[in-house]
Amino acid sequence: MDKFTVVILDKDDISKQIITNYLKPFENNIESIKSFNSLSEINYNKIINLKRLVVIMDISEDIQQRCDFVARILQDNPRINVMTMADDYSIDTVIKSMRAGAKDFLPKPIKEQEFSAVIGKFFEYNNVIKHNNCKVITLFSNKGGIGKTSIAVNLALELANITKEKVALIDMNFQLGDVINFLDIKPSFNIAYVFDNLNNANEEFFLATFDKYKNTNLYVLADSPYLEQSKNITTNQIFTLFEKLRKTFSYVIIDTSNIFDDKTIPILDNTDFIMLVSVLNLPALRNCQRCLDVFDRLGYDKDKTKIVVNRYIENDDISIDDAEKTLNRKIYWKIPNNYFTLISAINKGLPVYDINPHSNLAKSYRELATVLSDNLYKQKLADRIIRNKKFSFKNLILS
User: Fold this and answer.
1) How far is CA 301 from CA 134, 250, 395, in A?
2) Is the whole-model pTM more than 0.70?
3) What is the arithmetic mean of pLDDT over 229-240?
4) Confidence of residue 126 (pLDDT cuts 50, 70, 90)
5) Which homologous superfamily is 4-127 in?
6) CB atoms within 10 A of CB 52
7) What distance lies between CA 89 and its chain's CA centroid?
8) Can you tell me the distance from the alpha carbon of 240 to that of 244, in angstroms, rounded to the nearest whole number?
9) Residue spans per domain, the chain
10) CATH T-level fold of 135-395
């Protein structure tokens, strides 16, 4: 296992010593620790070429210069992990840090528990051996009201029906989750209960606490009923949850909130495939571009993110070609606009397939699930479904 180089930039010698002490439990992951007082002491060309690097930087002074440095190193090497800290932890300081590309921010003086959670995430995520029998797919958009929950629900159910394997649908919108309403489920448990009992979580626990949807292999976990229940969820807990889910389910579909925060980013970090949902209007596409920019700063491979256009109408004012030119990315999937079928499904708390299995909307969800499934037979079936001659399963992120 390749080890990490840790670079600490802080002119306070006591602070540097404290951080070094906090790193001792992680020494098996660390090749060396290098400490600097100022940016001028750092050999930029040397550190930028390191394969595994964690930068811990104090931005209490010269904040703009140091944020510019963060943005520069991440542009040159997106896989670098950056944690910033400062005496001033105002919203403005945190926003500047995150916009530069830092994955985490901690206020000074640094507390050991908070520091260990952040640094542990860097090491664990980069060292994780992903289980080949599970794919985690997260639906995300930083604009509300464009249908990502309906896609998550219907995609999860189609995956369960097509593959006949265990599929988890988890509502990780910790503020205003809505998954259970789309399937008219009265949950026995919720995600707060799962996090509270994470030490005991195994396959038996998950299958008992998740709500099995009718006679399918879809298992649904509801969001927390009270907003305050999500406040104490940590990065390490999110990471542990995903590791355990991978041992139980073949597919995990996540519906998230539409903001970048200390919970959403760890979810995206632990995702195999981000389905970035947009519609074909200018504000939505601009928000989509902002998301892509954030994903680049977070160091995600471009193939990790696929853009899904929802409510697609042919001959609309903005075409697919226009969207692809604007985003400089290919559109992965188009889900047709079918207002009456979708609103009927939502109002009745049923999947689209149960409302009208022959609708263009049900067909699109079914075909998307078929393409995403990694069963050999289903791949052959998808070859017949896809009409694009340039299509190849070799290009699928989940192949």
Assistant:
1) 19, 22, 14
2) no
3) 82
4) low
5) Response regulator (3.40.50.2300)
6) 20
7) 25
8) 6
9) 4-127, 135-395
10) Rossmann fold (3.40.50)
